[in-house]
Design brief:
pyruvate-formate lyase- activating enzyme, 15 helices
């Protein structure tokens, strides 16, 4: 594969573009199963298997991490998931294998994939029936509780997603969600504000609550999660000791990953990155799958690196930065850092990272630093 750095680890992302019914806030590409032509799911699975087979031959080694996301991966059935996972692991075991799943699809049959899967990511979003109705979720409180119970006694590491700042919600509802979900002892919790996307049913009937109010929800949630023993290691991610998501850290380090499936993205290379995007929709994917590749300049690569690295509590390792981009961090960004409020970052000889205060102003800080490129 042109642009791939074969000396570095490679991760694999597989997009399952099917769902039972699209949630009202969701802008990710997915197709409700009820609207599918009869053989599209089978053709999708066969296309994914062929793409993985080709990459297996080209790369020739095991992948660092494998992630199956959606849509709702459970819609293709456990046997199809097994086929895809076995193909992805043909060159050897990955350090982490994650499957996303909706709460209503957490079943004993799904848990039978424990010989191949190491982590389950479940989209709980909220335990409040009113919030779930606002979001247009298929799951309700009862199915959420059932999923939490099954996962808490399973052999998997697992992650629960929580959405906050939903119109009509109050801070106490979010704190109750966090405390109840944490009582089932997930090793990892993703916690983020509701995003209003164009052309979704939600935006036609509700309005965002405003940035200042969102910040109140976030800070209260961050405080509660830390008090419960979760490390705030990325702007929207919290983990107990040893439970960080290895796959997501590939993204945040601007590492190498290939994405297969309609609209899936990838990023390969190191000093100079090539971004990749698979065929835009399910019809084009199963008829003529094609990865469109865009080489980035060194400056564009550095901009991408800023966007992801500054989302993390670890921030930027200055030695690794200089090795990658051929210039010292201080030389590149010294003037920009002077424009940033001192309580928004921590800086040592070896590292530059944002504080939680800095996370609140992330977009502005990245803009200031990008001006130096």
């Amino acid at each position: 594969m042109k642009g791939l750095d074969y000396s570095r680890p490679l991760s694999l992302y597989i997009h399952v573009p099917f769902c039972t019914r699209k949630c009202d806030y969701c802008a990710f590409y997915s197709v409700p199963c009820s609207s599918l032509p009869a053989n599209w799911m089978e053709r999708y699975v066969n296309t994914v298997l062929a793409e993985i087979e080709a990459l297996n031959r080209d790369y020739g080694k095991s992948y660092y991490t494998v992630y199956i996301g959606g849509g709702n991966p459970a819609t293709i059935g456990v046997e199809n998931l097994r086929k895809i996972l076995e193909k992805a692991l043909e060159n050897g075991k990955a350090e982490e294998v994650t499957v996303e799943v909706n709460p209503e699809n957490v079943t004993e049959e799904l848990l039978s994939l424990s010989d191949l899967v190491t982590r389950i990511s479940v989209g709980i979003q909220s335990m409040d029936e009113g919030v779930l109705r606002t979001l247009g979720r298929n799951a309700n409180r009862e199915s959420n509780l059932k999923a939490l119970s099954l996962l808490s006694s399973s052999p998997f590491r697992w992650n629960a997603d929580i959405i906050t700042a939903v119109p009509g919600e109050n801070v106490e509802t979010t704190l109750d969600d966090i405390s109840l979900i944490a009582s089932y002892n997930p090793g990892h919790i993703s916690f983020y504000c509701l995003t209003f996307e164009e052309n979704t049913p939600l935006i036609a009937r509700a309005k965002p609550i405003g940035e200042d109010v969102e910040a109140e929800f976030l800070q209260a949630g961050w405080d509660r999660l830390r008090a419960l023993g979760y490390e705030h290691y990325e702007i929207s991610a919290f983990a107990k000791n040893g439970e960080r998501s290895k796959h997501n850290q590939v993204y945040w380090n601007l590492g190498q990953y290939v994405g297969f499936g309609p609209g899936a993205e990838g990023s390969i290379g190191w000093e100079k990155v090539t971004t990749m995007r698979d065929s835009e929709n399910i019809e084009s994917f199963i008829s003529s799958p094609e990865l469109s590749c865009t080489p980035l300049s060194v400056t564009e690569t550095e901009e991408e690196y800023l966007l992801v690295a500054l989302r993390t509590a670890d921030g930027i390792d200055k030695k690794a930065y200089e090795e990658r981009f051929g210039i010292s961090f201080s030389e590149r960004y010294g003037d920009a850092v002077k424009r940033i409020s001192r309580d928004s970052y921590v800086e040592t000889e070896s590292r530059f990272a944002l504080t939680e205060q800095g996370f609140m102003s992330l977009d502005w800080i990245i803009l200031q630093m990008a001006m130096g490129l």
